[in-house]
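Shall we go through a protein fold together, starting from nothing but its sequence? Label the sequence line and the structure token line clearly, so we can match residues to local backbone shapes. Would you write everything just below, so we can both look at the same thing?
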Amino acid sequence: MGLLRTILAIAVVFAHLPFGGSFVFIGGLHAVQLFYFISGYLIAHVIATNKSYENPLKFYLNRILRIYPIYLAVAFLSLLYAILINQKFLDLYQNIPASADALLIFSNLFIFGQDWVMFSGVNEGHLVATSDFKKSDFLLHTGLLVPQAWTLGVELSFYALAPYVLRDKKMIFVLLILSLSIRWFLFNQGLGNRDPWNYRFFPAELSLFLMGALSNQYLLPFWRKIISLAPFRALPRLATYLVICLVVFYFRIPVNEAIKGPLLFSVFLLFMPLTFLYQSTSKIDQAIGELSYPIYICHLLIIRITNDMSERLNIFDHFGILCACLFMSLMFAYLLNRHIGDRIEQLRTKIRGVRIKTANQPLFDRAG
């Protein structure tokens, strides 16, 4: 699923472009939610197959090393760019109450709480909870150095639960029912389709992580038995191509979204184990997948810089800006991976221990 993860990251890049890229591929919202599925699947897999993660502290340390070094590098560069170029960023901190300053500083440093910034606002000089972050005297999310990292706040909440929940299938189903009930309640209250409740509220989004975990626990063994039969050995490759085509051409499918969205999720959950197995046989797929996280983390900084440069140079070629943002995001992601990710990966490998590859069983990638 390496190429698939990178395509999803690129879908988010398109969604954040300021001239209507939201409907390219599957759009930003669906891309983020499919990442939740993938995260649940991968974390369930590594917890089940790596004995070193029987110690939750080792699991947490490995997650920290996976997420924070690249995030902090991009956050530092974003802060440097804001100090040198974007004075409005600093002005926000001078105008909001101290409690809002504390929330933003803490979440920028530790990522935890960035998703809750999307449920916060300023009203008459006070930090308040709000059902619509746009109805605020100041837009607090503009004080995030890496604004898209709010999704990492959601993922970190899942990681905090994972070592204790994913080993107990009964607990998985109990939490899944509770999470789906919360999602139903939000829809019943008219909030389920509204930002930020439609994909930023962790108690509702937990269901997606858990469904990804169940895909690993129940469907992976099923598909392994199927592809052990000679006529079906090409299924991982074919399923990967099918899911990639669905993701890339989703916006062209002439079906009502109320049907198309659930169909996308169903197909994705069904075939996700096959895309995972395909990655074990393709080094190219693994290498491309390693770029997905740094692309996701760096792309808004690249878009910000590219837009500022194009305005100063009076360049308004949307296609040219899109290509420049995509190319620069890929190059920056490669550099982040090579100079930070690869070095940190050596330390992560020592923590989780050496694992030998067996038939039809992938080696741990960077998600491990």
Remarks:
- Residues 354-365 have pLDDT under 50 and may be disordered.
- The chain has two domains: 2-86+149-352, 87-147.
